[in-house]
Specification:
Radius of gyration: 16 Å
Structural class: alpha/beta
CATH class: Alpha Beta
Keywords: Membrane, NADP, One-carbon metabolism, Oxidoreductase, Transmembrane, Transmembrane helix
Shape: globular
Order of helices and strands: EEHEHEEHEHEEEHEE
Number of helices: 5
CATH superfamily: Dihydrofolate Reductase, subunit A
Largest sheet: 9 strands, mixed
Number of domains: 1
GO molecular function: dihydrofolate reductase activity; NADP binding
GO biological process, one term: one-carbon metabolic process
Number of strands: 11
EC number: 1.5.1.3
Pathway: Cofactor biosynthesis; tetrahydrofolate biosynthesis; 5,6,7,8-tetrahydrofolate from 7,8-dihydrofolate: step 1/1
Length: 211
């Protein structure tokens, strides 16, 4: 599919990763939405999830139904990506080949790998229940985080429940060069400032992962 050893896992299988933005308390959302709106962070997400090393390939984004519905209708499906939506009840996709509805993460990953175009990377993009399910599935070996700090209190009601930091963490922070190699392009290394928020981009790899 591609000559890059970082774009695909063993045997040409797409790399599966979680991509999320969070505050130090592991909060990621409030009432089904993100408690911040960061222009440069959104541009980073778009760049990371659309960039492939193989011009014939595409990336996939997997999201829960509530995350899908939180995207303004005029912006969905997210362009230049295969959109896969998890819902407990099957939906018709109205003939739109860029959107697939699945009833489980296992089905979503299977359909991504069998898609009509080669899928290079699969991004789990939320919400919280899906992040935690994906982690517990053992399918995810990579974690892309936007680490956000604020000069005010940020209320959240949705959290990442698995340990990312500290002694109980199953993740190892990677150097910035590894992040750029993984995503296939330049990534800002310095902390960014927007309004009340300061944030930076980080890459973690699962311990003992050999992808």
């Amino acid at each position: 599919m591609t000559s890059s050893g970082h774009s695909l896992g063993r045997g040409g299988i797409p790399i599966v990763m979680i991509v999320a933005a969070l505050v130090p308390e592991m909060g990621i959302g409030l009432k089904g939405k993100m408690p911040w709106r960061l222009k440069n962070e959104m541009a980073y997400f778009r760049k990371v999830t659309t960039t492939t090393t193989d011009n014939e390939a595409i990336n996939a984004v997997i999201m829960g139904r509530k995350t899908w519905q939180s995207i303004p209708e005029k912006f969905r499906p997210l362009p230049k990506r295969l959109n896969i939506v998890l819902s407990r009840s099957q939906h018709e996709n109205d003939g739109d080949d860029a959107v697939l509805f699945c009833t489980s993460l296992e089905e979503a990953l299977s359909k991504a790998k069998k898609y009509s175009k080669p899928v290079e990377k699969i991004f789990i993009m939320g919400g919280g229940e899906l992040y935690n399910q994906a982690y517990n599935s053992g399918q995810v070996g990579h974690l892309l985080l936007t680490e956000i700090r604020a000069n005010k209190e940020v209320e959240t009601d949705t959290r990442i429940e698995f340990p990312v930091y500290g002694d109980q963490s199953t993740w190892i922070r990677q150097p910035h060069s590894a992040l750029q190699e993984l995503v296939g392009g330049e990534v800002e290394e310095q902390q960014l400032q927007e309004g009340d928020f300061t944030y930076g981009f980080a890459y973690f790899k699962k311990k003992e992962s050999d992808e």
